[in-house]
Amino acid sequence: MNKILLERLIRPLTAVVFVAALGACATTPQPPASPAAPQPVPVLPFDEALLKAANDLFAKAQLPSADSSSPIRYMLVIDPLVDGMTGDQSAATVSMQSRIEQLAREQYPQFDVQPFSTATVDQSPIVLVGTFTPINQEGKTEGTREAYRICLALADLKSGTIVSKGVARAQPQGVDATPTRHFQDSPVWMRDPATEGYIKTCQGTKPGDPINPVYADRIRTAALIGEAIEAYNAGQYQRALALYEEARQTPGGDQLRVYNGIYLAQWRLGQREAATQSFGQIVDHGLANQNLAIRFLFRPGSTAFIPNPQISGPYPLWLRQVAIHTANSNACLEIAGHTSPTGPQPLNERLSLRRAEYIKRRLESQAPPLSKRTIATGKGSSENLIGTGTDDLSDALDRRVSFQVIDCATPISAASNDRSRAL
């Protein structure tokens, strides 16, 4: 076969192979592109984060309109901002509120900022609520907290809806999370429906959603409590007591902030017998809700209370009332000790158990039948509410002793042994 004929035979075959290869490439399915990784939420300096959240809140507010050619002004009141885990007010939340009020007055003239009181609430204003929550790198309220999440919301009482939200994350530097005086002095903490309703109004909503019904139903009582807390923080104990007692008589007054406030004001006024009875009511309230946590402050690494009579002086009264009211209720309790995250977890678990056992013995000395109706456990730092590990007044709740009502049908000795082996 000559050379020319051979080329004529090979060229078509080559073309066919090349076209087939192109076809194969065109029809081969390509792997789907991986979704773009979400952009990390920026963590800003505290002041910058607060201004971002507040400006977004005010600028994006979907305010109700009116048939008027003149500019409309909307009454705005601020229900004091709180820690998103504990419901406590702090030096940080107070400063945040002051800065937000200043911003609204200077840059958003459509808002008429007024005090949060029963008189203003009765006019169905727009209410600003906000939470300031310690979070970890993943934005969760567990583990080591390394930032704060700011959440602000505007709730229109007339329409019953959320009309705006503003959120941001703040660096912890320069943040003073020390609770204000009422919350710092309050002996007992528990998850209270009224406080939970406030937090959910901010954290569990988006614009257009209804206001949390528990919060909406108790907002007038919240205004009374706010005035009482302000009076207590200012050392006006007689006025604070009158306002706490007035709040107690309202339909929404059955809440822990009220019971704590009445006890605190009576104690400050030297009304020891009345304060003792009021603390008993706090214990009954906790037992009815199956949980309460008491702020016992221990010496570091010890089961001994700190030797400061201004702080630990009332502890015997507290323990006696817990023992008496628990014994009278026939309740069974799990007494759990807690520690901050400072130090190795195994050591924290043992220390928290020893503290719980110490409290258990103190209760049994007051009411011997409780020896068969209580167990002691150590939680270490596994259930921190604050989680910052500062070991000061700002995270005192992480070093609490909690009392949880448990089923008396479970043999206490067996349950206690099981829990001890787990540690």
Keywords, please?
5-stranded mixed β-sheet, disordered N terminus, 423 residues, alpha/beta, single chain, 7-stranded mixed β-sheet
Question: How is the secondary structure organized here?
Answer:
Layout: H1 3-27, E1 43-44, H2 46-59, E2 74-78, E3 82-83, H3 91-107, E4 111-113, H4 118-121, E5 126-135, E6 147-156, E7 161-170, H5 181-185, E8 188-189, H6 193-203, H7 213-217, H8 219-233, H9 237-248, H10 256-268, H11 272-288, E9 291-294, H12 309-312, H13 315-329, E10 332-337, H14 345-366, E11 374-378, E12 401-406, H15 412-422
Parallel strand pairs: 1-7, 2-4, 2-5, 3-5, 10-11
Antiparallel strand pairs: 5-6, 6-7, 8-9, 9-12, 10-12
Helix pairs in contact: 2-3, 8-9, 8-10, 9-10, 10-11, 11-13, 13-14
Can you describe what's shown?
Helices cover 45% and strands 15% of the residues. By secondary structure, the chain is of the alpha/beta class. A hairpin with a 4-residue loop joins strand 6 (147-156) and strand 7. The chain is globular and about 75 Å long. The model is unreliable at 1-27 and 414-423 (pLDDT under 50).
